[in-house]
């Protein structure tokens, strides 16, 4: 009976999101509004402190990579430094002057609306022939378009001309860091300039500064659902749908849900908890329905659905639950693993795995992941959403690591092997040190055993990583490989044990796991991805 009610609620919500107004009741409109507005919680968490501390149309720079002592961001990326700010186009355009970036330095300048839609990117792997960016409201264009204008880089406009679908939004810059370029990245950050323009291209009138909007406090002690409705009442008028033709249906639902300027008033008989459950269930269904099955238990969100969600509000809400500010593909890909080619991955990386002190996870890569120029990748280990303390200060392994093949030659680096074959990454307890010929391929998990999750990230992926023609890593659970002589059924050298993954009884595939995206969506958080 409960399943029937849930499916019925999802069906009603789907007709509302598809533009059919036959079921536009206050209950369904409230569910739609929650689905539509959930990413605003991530925006508020990010924007409120930024606006309070540096104002708008400015950026703040992170200067050092996260460590196990860092708790400001959940599941932090240890590949890049960030520069972040909130833009406000209510009274003027915004101009940016980009530094002169070396050809081998990854730097991506990304633009988001408050709902997390990545509507434009400038820099590595994208339009990168300009050192200036003009950011304007799309109303100034005289059309419904948004994003990077096609005239960018031409004689008519030699810089990048970007139209924002919303009055307010986010600028997020990712700077790749390696073992030698930290000073360079700091210099690039210091020479980036963002400022109010002397022009105001918008045709809108009487829009408030975002400082006035965010100055109206959100009572985050009530419930996430109530917070969403409150944020919609404050922001929806200035942050309309990315697809302009959706404005009518969105506004009809907001009004039917009792959401007006700075005010929320639930209709008589509306069950907010039931509406919230319907919205979250729809988000989970949308996420699962748009997974691309790869191989070896890996899957990912369909590339054409990633980052820029347009009218896919269910996917947008699901992503905001675990990865607010996702990039468009192929700028970044976040494959998830479930050890099953027929079931979903749940969230962005599959569920946590409980490893005892005497167990390990072995990731066997078929070859180096194929990337575009200046692309990079990493596998990062977390426990309870944070980096794992360990004596060697290794939190991720990837293309900038000194991993080795089974013969001891480097997988990456100036003296790396010409060979492009199998290599392995070993995840096991921080206090269970493997033999010396494994330490360069060792990613520590919690000392003494505990819960661990691993997040795989591809940046500027080649097509074979998107369509599954690349053979994804095989993940196996096995006894720990210890320095005091190894373990039965496990090789003492990286990659040499690949043939034992299927045949050796001491190395067995991790059992299928079913993780709940619905539970993940219940907690909205900012995740730097």
Characterise this structure.
The protein is α+β, with helices and mostly antiparallel strands. The chain folds into three domains: 22-40 and 207-287, no CATH class; 55-196, Immunoglobulin-like (Sandwich), CATH 2.60.40; 292-521, Jelly Rolls (Sandwich), CATH 2.60.120. Helices cover 23% and strands 24% of the residues. It is built from twelve helices and 26 strands. It has helices at residues 2-17, 26-37, 39-54, 182-191, 210-214, 224-235, 247-256, 272-289, 313-323, 463-467, 500-503, 517-521, and strands at residues 60-61, 80-88, 94-97, 107-112, 118-123, 132-137, 147-148, 160-164, 168-176, 193-196, 259-260, 263-264, 291-293, 298-301, 332-333, 336-337, 353-356, 359-365, 371-383, 386-387, 396-398, 423-429, 442-445, 449-461, 474-479, 508-509. The strands form six sheets. Strands 15, 17, 19, 20, 21 and 24 form a six-stranded antiparallel sheet that branches. The longest helix is centred in the middle third of the chain and has 18 residues, at 272-289. The model is unreliable at 1-11, 340-349, 486-490 and 496-528 (pLDDT under 50).
